Automatic annotation (TrEMBL):
Transmembrane segments: 6-26, 95-113, 119-138, 147-167, 187-208
Originating species: Rubrivivax benzoatilyticus
InterPro entries reported for this sequence: Diguanylate_Cyclase, GGDEF_dom, Nucleotide_cyclase, Rev_trsase/Diguanyl_cyclase
Domain GGDEF: 250-384
Record-linked Gene3D superfamilies: 3.30.70.270
CDD domains: GGDEF
Name by which UniProt lists this protein: diguanylate cyclase
Family matches, as PROSITE patterns: GGDEF
Length: 390
Protein backbone atom coordinates (compact mmCIF):
# COMPACT_ATOMS: atom_id res chain seq x y z
CA UNK A 1 0.00 0.00 0.00
CA UNK A 2 1.33 3.43 -1.00
CA UNK A 3 1.12 6.07 1.71
CA UNK A 4 0.16 9.51 0.43
CA UNK A 5 1.80 12.31 2.52
CA UNK A 6 -0.96 14.92 1.86
CA UNK A 7 -3.60 12.45 3.05
CA UNK A 8 -1.64 11.71 6.21
CA UNK A 9 -1.17 15.45 6.71
CA UNK A 10 -4.94 15.95 6.58
CA UNK A 11 -5.36 13.25 9.26
CA UNK A 12 -2.70 15.01 11.31
CA UNK A 13 -4.62 18.27 11.05
CA UNK A 14 -7.81 16.53 12.19
CA UNK A 15 -5.90 15.21 15.18
CA UNK A 16 -4.81 18.73 16.14
CA UNK A 17 -8.40 19.93 15.80
CA UNK A 18 -9.71 17.15 18.09
CA UNK A 19 -6.99 17.84 20.62
CA UNK A 20 -7.74 21.55 20.48
CA UNK A 21 -11.41 20.90 21.27
CA UNK A 22 -10.46 18.73 24.23
CA UNK A 23 -8.01 21.34 25.49
CA UNK A 24 -10.73 24.00 25.33
CA UNK A 25 -13.10 21.86 27.39
CA UNK A 26 -10.48 20.83 29.95
CA UNK A 27 -9.20 24.39 30.39
CA UNK A 28 -12.70 25.55 31.21
CA UNK A 29 -13.14 22.78 33.78
CA UNK A 30 -9.73 23.32 35.37
CA UNK A 31 -10.02 27.10 35.53
CA UNK A 32 -7.44 28.03 32.92
CA UNK A 33 -4.36 26.22 34.19
CA UNK A 34 -1.32 28.13 32.92
CA UNK A 35 0.41 25.03 31.55
CA UNK A 36 -2.73 24.03 29.66
CA UNK A 37 -3.01 27.52 28.22
CA UNK A 38 0.53 27.27 26.83
CA UNK A 39 -0.11 23.81 25.47
CA UNK A 40 -3.24 25.11 23.75
CA UNK A 41 -1.17 27.83 22.10
CA UNK A 42 1.30 25.20 20.95
CA UNK A 43 -1.49 23.07 19.53
CA UNK A 44 -2.90 26.06 17.63
CA UNK A 45 0.53 26.96 16.23
CA UNK A 46 1.18 23.39 15.10
CA UNK A 47 -2.23 23.25 13.47
CA UNK A 48 -1.53 26.49 11.61
CA UNK A 49 1.95 25.35 10.64
CA UNK A 50 0.83 22.05 9.13
CA UNK A 51 -2.04 23.85 7.43
CA UNK A 52 0.44 26.24 5.79
CA UNK A 53 2.51 23.31 4.52
CA UNK A 54 -0.60 21.71 3.08
CA UNK A 55 -1.64 25.02 1.50
CA UNK A 56 1.47 25.11 -0.71
CA UNK A 57 -0.75 24.32 -3.70
CA UNK A 58 -2.42 27.75 -3.39
CA UNK A 59 0.17 29.73 -1.40
CA UNK A 60 3.53 30.76 -2.87
CA UNK A 61 6.15 28.18 -1.97
CA UNK A 62 8.46 30.59 -0.04
CA UNK A 63 5.55 31.70 2.14
CA UNK A 64 4.43 28.12 2.71
CA UNK A 65 7.92 26.91 3.63
CA UNK A 66 8.90 29.77 5.91
CA UNK A 67 5.52 30.22 7.63
CA UNK A 68 4.83 26.49 7.98
CA UNK A 69 8.16 25.51 9.49
CA UNK A 70 8.31 28.61 11.70
CA UNK A 71 4.84 27.98 13.13
CA UNK A 72 5.64 24.30 13.76
CA UNK A 73 8.82 25.23 15.59
CA UNK A 74 7.00 27.87 17.66
CA UNK A 75 4.36 25.27 18.52
CA UNK A 76 7.00 22.89 19.80
CA UNK A 77 8.52 25.70 21.88
CA UNK A 78 5.10 26.37 23.39
CA UNK A 79 4.72 22.66 24.20
CA UNK A 80 8.07 22.67 25.96
CA UNK A 81 7.21 25.88 27.83
CA UNK A 82 4.02 24.19 29.03
CA UNK A 83 6.00 21.18 30.24
CA UNK A 84 8.50 23.40 32.07
CA UNK A 85 5.63 25.23 33.78
CA UNK A 86 3.86 21.99 34.68
CA UNK A 87 6.95 20.18 36.01
CA UNK A 88 9.02 22.95 37.60
CA UNK A 89 6.46 25.79 37.91
CA UNK A 90 8.80 28.24 36.19
CA UNK A 91 9.45 29.58 32.68
CA UNK A 92 11.97 28.10 30.28
CA UNK A 93 15.64 28.78 31.12
CA UNK A 94 17.10 31.72 29.26
CA UNK A 95 19.45 29.59 27.18
CA UNK A 96 16.54 27.42 26.02
CA UNK A 97 14.55 30.51 25.00
CA UNK A 98 17.58 31.80 23.10
CA UNK A 99 17.98 28.45 21.36
CA UNK A 100 14.33 28.51 20.32
CA UNK A 101 14.74 32.07 19.05
CA UNK A 102 17.80 31.10 17.04
CA UNK A 103 15.99 28.14 15.48
CA UNK A 104 13.03 30.31 14.53
CA UNK A 105 15.32 32.96 12.99
CA UNK A 106 17.15 30.25 11.04
CA UNK A 107 13.87 29.25 9.37
CA UNK A 108 13.53 32.62 7.60
CA UNK A 109 16.12 32.06 4.81
CA UNK A 110 14.89 28.51 4.05
CA UNK A 111 13.14 29.62 0.86
CA UNK A 112 16.53 30.57 -0.62
CA UNK A 113 17.68 26.95 -0.71
CA UNK A 114 16.62 23.97 -2.76
CA UNK A 115 14.12 21.47 -1.36
CA UNK A 116 16.62 18.83 -0.08
CA UNK A 117 18.56 21.52 1.80
CA UNK A 118 15.35 22.92 3.30
CA UNK A 119 14.34 19.45 4.46
CA UNK A 120 17.75 18.90 6.04
CA UNK A 121 17.84 22.25 7.88
CA UNK A 122 14.26 21.93 9.15
CA UNK A 123 14.90 18.33 10.26
CA UNK A 124 17.93 19.41 12.30
CA UNK A 125 16.43 22.51 13.94
CA UNK A 126 12.85 21.42 14.63
CA UNK A 127 13.66 18.55 17.04
CA UNK A 128 15.77 20.71 19.38
CA UNK A 129 12.82 21.93 21.54
CA UNK A 130 11.35 18.42 21.53
CA UNK A 131 14.63 17.02 22.87
CA UNK A 132 14.54 19.45 25.79
CA UNK A 133 10.91 18.55 26.51
CA UNK A 134 11.71 14.82 26.52
CA UNK A 135 14.63 15.48 28.86
CA UNK A 136 12.38 17.45 31.24
CA UNK A 137 10.02 14.50 31.59
CA UNK A 138 12.86 11.99 31.95
CA UNK A 139 14.60 14.08 34.59
CA UNK A 140 11.42 14.41 36.67
CA UNK A 141 10.01 10.94 35.94
CA UNK A 142 10.00 9.90 39.62
CA UNK A 143 8.04 12.93 40.85
CA UNK A 144 5.56 13.68 38.07
CA UNK A 145 2.34 11.95 37.14
CA UNK A 146 2.87 8.75 35.18
CA UNK A 147 0.39 9.98 32.61
CA UNK A 148 3.08 12.52 31.65
CA UNK A 149 5.49 9.78 30.59
CA UNK A 150 3.84 9.31 27.14
CA UNK A 151 4.34 13.03 26.58
CA UNK A 152 8.09 12.68 26.97
CA UNK A 153 8.10 9.51 24.87
CA UNK A 154 6.10 11.24 22.13
CA UNK A 155 8.47 14.21 22.00
CA UNK A 156 11.46 11.88 21.91
CA UNK A 157 9.83 9.92 19.08
CA UNK A 158 9.25 13.10 17.07
CA UNK A 159 12.86 14.20 17.61
CA UNK A 160 14.23 10.82 16.51
CA UNK A 161 12.04 10.76 13.40
CA UNK A 162 13.06 14.28 12.38
CA UNK A 163 16.76 13.61 12.95
CA UNK A 164 16.46 10.40 10.96
CA UNK A 165 14.86 12.36 8.12
CA UNK A 166 17.66 14.93 8.29
CA UNK A 167 20.30 12.23 8.02
CA UNK A 168 18.43 10.59 5.16
CA UNK A 169 18.11 13.93 3.35
CA UNK A 170 21.84 14.54 3.68
CA UNK A 171 22.67 11.14 2.20
CA UNK A 172 19.89 11.01 -0.40
CA UNK A 173 19.08 14.58 -1.52
CA UNK A 174 17.40 13.43 -4.73
CA UNK A 175 14.76 11.64 -2.66
CA UNK A 176 13.44 15.00 -1.38
CA UNK A 177 12.93 16.95 -4.59
CA UNK A 178 9.18 17.04 -3.71
CA UNK A 179 8.29 16.08 -0.10
CA UNK A 180 4.60 15.76 -1.03
CA UNK A 181 5.17 12.85 -3.42
CA UNK A 182 4.40 9.34 -2.09
CA UNK A 183 7.41 8.00 -0.25
CA UNK A 184 8.26 5.81 2.70
CA UNK A 185 10.35 8.30 4.69
CA UNK A 186 7.91 11.20 4.36
CA UNK A 187 4.92 9.00 5.17
CA UNK A 188 6.74 7.44 8.14
CA UNK A 189 7.56 10.89 9.52
CA UNK A 190 3.97 12.08 9.26
CA UNK A 191 2.61 8.87 10.80
CA UNK A 192 5.11 9.19 13.63
CA UNK A 193 4.01 12.80 14.17
CA UNK A 194 0.36 11.72 14.26
CA UNK A 195 0.96 8.98 16.83
CA UNK A 196 3.21 11.21 18.91
CA UNK A 197 0.59 13.98 18.79
CA UNK A 198 -2.08 11.72 20.20
CA UNK A 199 0.24 10.32 22.87
CA UNK A 200 1.71 13.67 23.90
CA UNK A 201 -1.37 15.86 23.70
CA UNK A 202 -3.86 13.57 25.35
CA UNK A 203 -1.21 12.44 27.85
CA UNK A 204 -0.63 16.04 28.89
CA UNK A 205 -4.36 16.65 29.30
CA UNK A 206 -4.61 13.49 31.42
CA UNK A 207 -1.65 14.58 33.56
CA UNK A 208 -3.23 18.01 34.20
CA UNK A 209 -6.53 16.38 35.11
CA UNK A 210 -4.79 13.92 37.41
CA UNK A 211 -2.93 16.70 39.19
CA UNK A 212 -6.12 18.74 39.60
CA UNK A 213 -7.89 15.70 41.08
CA UNK A 214 -5.06 15.12 43.53
CA UNK A 215 -5.14 18.79 44.49
CA UNK A 216 -8.85 18.58 45.25
CA UNK A 217 -8.31 15.44 47.32
CA UNK A 218 -5.55 17.21 49.25
CA UNK A 219 -7.78 20.21 49.91
CA UNK A 220 -10.52 17.90 51.16
CA UNK A 221 -8.26 16.11 53.63
CA UNK A 222 -5.89 18.92 54.68
CA UNK A 223 -6.33 22.27 56.37
CA UNK A 224 -5.85 25.01 53.76
CA UNK A 225 -4.00 27.37 56.09
CA UNK A 226 -1.51 25.10 57.85
CA UNK A 227 -1.35 22.09 55.53
CA UNK A 228 -2.04 19.78 58.48
CA UNK A 229 -4.55 16.98 58.16
CA UNK A 230 -8.15 17.70 59.00
CA UNK A 231 -9.63 15.96 62.00
CA UNK A 232 -11.62 13.24 60.22
CA UNK A 233 -8.76 11.70 58.19
CA UNK A 234 -6.50 12.03 61.23
CA UNK A 235 -8.98 10.02 63.29
CA UNK A 236 -8.91 7.25 60.69
CA UNK A 237 -5.11 7.18 60.81
CA UNK A 238 -5.22 7.07 64.62
CA UNK A 239 -7.54 4.07 64.45
CA UNK A 240 -5.16 2.35 62.03
CA UNK A 241 -2.21 3.08 64.31
CA UNK A 242 -4.03 1.54 67.27
CA UNK A 243 -4.83 -1.58 65.24
CA UNK A 244 -1.17 -1.98 64.31
CA UNK A 245 -0.17 -1.44 67.93
CA UNK A 246 -2.42 -4.32 68.99
CA UNK A 247 -0.73 -6.60 66.48
CA UNK A 248 2.81 -5.43 67.28
CA UNK A 249 2.25 -4.94 71.04
CA UNK A 250 3.65 -1.44 70.75
CA UNK A 251 2.55 1.85 72.31
CA UNK A 252 0.80 4.73 70.55
CA UNK A 253 1.10 8.22 71.98
CA UNK A 254 -1.47 10.91 71.27
CA UNK A 255 -0.60 14.57 71.90
CA UNK A 256 -3.11 17.37 72.05
CA UNK A 257 -1.53 20.84 71.64
CA UNK A 258 -3.11 24.24 72.27
CA UNK A 259 -1.29 27.48 71.42
CA UNK A 260 -1.18 29.68 74.51
CA UNK A 261 -3.38 32.79 74.58
CA UNK A 262 -3.99 32.68 70.85
CA UNK A 263 -7.09 34.89 71.06
CA UNK A 264 -5.00 37.68 72.50
CA UNK A 265 -2.54 37.27 69.62
CA UNK A 266 -5.33 37.98 67.14
CA UNK A 267 -6.69 40.82 69.26
CA UNK A 268 -3.35 42.56 69.72
CA UNK A 269 -1.60 41.88 66.40
CA UNK A 270 -4.41 41.10 63.96
CA UNK A 271 -5.64 38.00 62.24
CA UNK A 272 -3.01 38.22 59.49
CA UNK A 273 -0.26 37.82 62.05
CA UNK A 274 -2.29 35.12 63.79
CA UNK A 275 -2.50 33.17 60.53
CA UNK A 276 1.25 33.52 60.09
CA UNK A 277 1.79 32.14 63.59
CA UNK A 278 -0.35 29.10 62.74
CA UNK A 279 1.53 28.51 59.48
CA UNK A 280 4.96 28.83 61.06
CA UNK A 281 3.95 26.57 63.94
CA UNK A 282 2.70 23.90 61.53
CA UNK A 283 5.90 24.11 59.47
CA UNK A 284 8.00 23.79 62.61
CA UNK A 285 6.11 20.73 63.77
CA UNK A 286 6.01 19.05 60.38
CA UNK A 287 9.77 19.43 59.92
CA UNK A 288 10.46 17.46 63.11
CA UNK A 289 8.13 14.50 62.72
CA UNK A 290 8.79 11.03 61.39
CA UNK A 291 7.14 9.77 58.23
CA UNK A 292 4.87 7.55 60.34
CA UNK A 293 3.70 10.37 62.63
CA UNK A 294 0.39 12.13 61.99
CA UNK A 295 -0.10 15.87 62.46
CA UNK A 296 -3.61 17.32 62.34
CA UNK A 297 -5.49 20.51 63.10
CA UNK A 298 -8.37 19.75 65.41
CA UNK A 299 -9.84 23.24 65.19
CA UNK A 300 -8.79 26.84 65.84
CA UNK A 301 -5.43 26.82 67.60
CA UNK A 302 -5.68 23.18 68.71
CA UNK A 303 -3.58 20.48 67.03
CA UNK A 304 -3.15 16.74 67.44
CA UNK A 305 -0.17 14.43 67.07
CA UNK A 306 -0.28 10.66 66.62
CA UNK A 307 3.08 9.11 67.49
CA UNK A 308 3.15 5.37 66.74
CA UNK A 309 5.61 3.18 68.59
CA UNK A 310 6.35 5.89 71.19
CA UNK A 311 6.47 5.42 74.95
CA UNK A 312 6.09 8.17 77.54
CA UNK A 313 9.73 9.23 77.41
CA UNK A 314 9.74 9.36 73.62
CA UNK A 315 6.53 11.36 73.37
CA UNK A 316 7.57 13.83 76.08
CA UNK A 317 10.92 14.23 74.34
CA UNK A 318 9.23 15.05 71.04
CA UNK A 319 6.94 17.62 72.66
CA UNK A 320 9.80 19.23 74.55
CA UNK A 321 11.81 19.53 71.34
CA UNK A 322 8.81 21.17 69.68
CA UNK A 323 8.45 23.63 72.56
CA UNK A 324 12.07 24.69 72.20
CA UNK A 325 11.78 24.94 68.42
CA UNK A 326 8.66 27.12 68.65
CA UNK A 327 10.34 29.43 71.15
CA UNK A 328 13.21 29.86 68.69
CA UNK A 329 11.13 30.50 65.53
CA UNK A 330 12.12 34.17 65.45
CA UNK A 331 8.68 35.62 64.79
CA UNK A 332 8.44 39.39 64.59
CA UNK A 333 5.29 41.48 64.98
CA UNK A 334 4.42 44.27 62.54
CA UNK A 335 5.98 46.85 64.86
CA UNK A 336 9.29 44.97 64.84
CA UNK A 337 9.05 43.41 68.28
CA UNK A 338 10.14 39.77 68.76
CA UNK A 339 7.35 37.32 69.47
CA UNK A 340 7.86 34.06 71.33
CA UNK A 341 5.23 31.37 70.80
CA UNK A 342 4.44 28.91 73.56
CA UNK A 343 1.94 26.10 73.81
CA UNK A 344 0.42 23.71 76.31
CA UNK A 345 0.17 20.00 75.61
CA UNK A 346 -1.42 16.87 76.98
CA UNK A 347 0.04 13.44 76.23
CA UNK A 348 -1.92 10.19 76.45
CA UNK A 349 -0.65 6.64 75.86
CA UNK A 350 -2.25 3.50 74.51
CA UNK A 351 -0.03 0.52 75.43
CA UNK A 352 -0.52 -2.31 72.92
CA UNK A 353 -3.41 -0.29 71.48
CA UNK A 354 -5.64 -1.25 74.41
CA UNK A 355 -6.90 2.32 74.94
CA UNK A 356 -9.37 3.20 72.18
CA UNK A 357 -9.31 6.36 70.10
CA UNK A 358 -12.08 8.16 71.99
CA UNK A 359 -10.61 7.39 75.41
CA UNK A 360 -7.16 8.38 74.17
CA UNK A 361 -8.49 11.74 73.06
CA UNK A 362 -10.29 12.27 76.39
CA UNK A 363 -7.12 11.46 78.32
CA UNK A 364 -5.04 13.86 76.25
CA UNK A 365 -7.72 16.57 76.54
CA UNK A 366 -7.81 16.16 80.33
CA UNK A 367 -4.00 16.42 80.50
CA UNK A 368 -4.09 19.51 78.27
CA UNK A 369 -6.66 21.09 80.59
CA UNK A 370 -4.31 20.44 83.54
CA UNK A 371 -1.36 21.97 81.68
CA UNK A 372 -3.31 25.15 80.88
CA UNK A 373 -4.57 25.56 84.42
CA UNK A 374 -1.10 24.94 85.82
CA UNK A 375 0.20 28.05 84.09
CA UNK A 376 0.48 27.07 80.40
CA UNK A 377 3.73 26.62 78.47
CA UNK A 378 4.11 23.04 79.72
CA UNK A 379 3.25 19.44 78.95
CA UNK A 380 1.36 17.02 81.16
CA UNK A 381 1.30 13.22 80.84
CA UNK A 382 -2.18 11.82 81.35
CA UNK A 383 -3.00 8.99 83.70
CA UNK A 384 -4.97 6.52 81.55
CA UNK A 385 -8.53 5.47 82.14
CA UNK A 386 -9.45 1.85 82.41
CA UNK A 387 -8.23 -0.04 79.30
CA UNK A 388 -10.72 -0.53 76.48
CA UNK A 389 -10.79 -3.38 73.99
CA UNK A 390 -12.77 -1.63 71.25
Amino acid sequence: MTLHPPTILVLLLLGYVMLGLQLAMVRRRLNEVEALRRWSWGNSLLLAGHLMLLARIVVPLPVSVIAGNTLILLGECAYVAALQQFIDDRPLPRWVRRTCGFCVAAMVPLALFDTPTRVFVASVLTPLPAIWGAWLVWRARHRVERSLWPVGAGLALIALALLARGGHAALNPSYYTDPMLPGGMQAALLLTSFVALLGSGFGFVLACTERATRSLEHLASHDHLTGALNRQPAELLLTNALQRARRDRSTVAYVLIDLDRFKSINDRHGHVFGDEVLRRFAQTVDARLRATDVFSRCGGEEFGLVLPDSDAAGALGVVEELRQACAAMGLMTDDGCPFVLTFSAGVALSPSGRVGAEALYRNADRALYEAKHAGRDRVVLAQPEAPQTT
